[in-house]
Design brief:
This protein has 296 residues and is of the alpha/beta class. The chain has a single domain, classed as Aldolase class I (TIM Barrel). Helix content is 46%, strand content 14%.
Length: 296
């Protein structure tokens, strides 16, 4: 299927306190996105740290998100797992709660074959009616969706597209070629947002837009309208921020950045650690050109 997602989507962080999810802070973060024109909110993806959350916490986050957003933007929940059964169960739960769609990362650690990837997405898609987005991030999972494999997966009726974060533009271009008219291509790597959009991508799923939602939205819209001059100008502002946001493992830097903006983002859950002091200056400097007043 095509046309599910267009524009700017934010891969949301999850703010924590020592006692659990900070829902007051999370509500303010959702409002920040909505006020700045973000088209979709991707919640409980990698950036949201679901691997360190309990099932009860994840369900509570889903319910809170849908209640707070109230249809003002699309809400997409991360449901992928290294267990097909768990991914199916999470996807069904997300649909039952009212999600607009689900994002299913490739099975991690198990390192299945390309045939196994096709079977994984077939089972998830057959269990739900909402659009499903495949998420290719081999640097995290150890599994790479090859272009020919994604072309097969794209034939599944409710497969909406692929969030591409392989970092390999040659592969992305081949995937784009094989998917045209079947399902959509989304950028999952902030440093490559502009070229992926220019290659035919219909949306970005951005970490940086936690911090600079308005700029990411403007850049995305410019490229989608064919204004590459404006797109490049805005991308040039955003690229140093993207580099700073990945100076350590995501979401370590972006959570620190949200704290710099005055949001109570807390710190990542172990085994992730707070941003190292040596990277704070890099992040603050990059934020000055892209974000509202940086505090502290």
């Amino acid at each position: 299927m095509t046309g599910f997602l267009k524009g700017s989507a934010t891969a949301m962080i999850t703010p924590f306190t020592k006692d659990g999810v900070n829902f007051d802070a999370f509500g303010k973060m959702l409002d920040y996105q909505l006020e700045n024109g973000t088209d979709a909110l991707v919640i409980l993806g990698t950036t949201g740290e679901p691997a360190t959350m309990t099932e009860e916490e994840k369900i509570a986050v889903m319910k809170f998100s849908l209640s707070h957003v109230r249809g003002r933007a699309k809400v997409i929940f991360g449901t992928g797992s290294n267990s097909t059964q768990k991914a199916v169960e999470a996807s069904v739960r997300a649909e039952e709660l009212g999600a607009d769609g689900v994002l299913a990362v490739t099975p991690y650690y198990n390192k299945c074959t390309q045939k196994g990837l096709i079977a994984y997405y077939e089972e998830i898609c057959s269990a739900v009616h909402v659009p499903v987005i495949a998420y290719n991030v081999p640097g995290r999972t150890g599994v790479n969706i090859l272009p020919e494999t994604m072309a097969r997966i794209a034939e599944i009726p409710n497969m909406a597209g692929i969030k591409e974060a392989s970092g390999n533009m040659a592969q992305v271009m081949e995937t784009a070629r094989l998917l045209r008219g079947k399902c959509d291509l989304y950028s999952g790597e902030d440093a490559l947002n502009l070229p992926i959009l220019a290659a035919g991508g219909s949306a970005v799923i951005s970490v940086v837009s936690n911090l600079a939602p308005k700029l990411v939205k403007r850049m995305t819209d410019a490229v989608l309208k064919g204004d590459l001059s404006e797109g490049n100008r805005l991308s040039d502002l955003l690229l140093p921020l993207a580099a700073a946001c990945f100076s350590e493992v995501n979401p370590i830097p972006v959570k620190a950045g949200m704290n710099f903006l005055g949001f109570e983002a807390g710190v990542p859950r172990p085994p992730l650690t707070p941003l190292e002091e040596g990277h704070e200056g890099l992040l603050r400097t990059a934020m000055k050109n892209c974000c509202p007043e940086v505090r502290g």
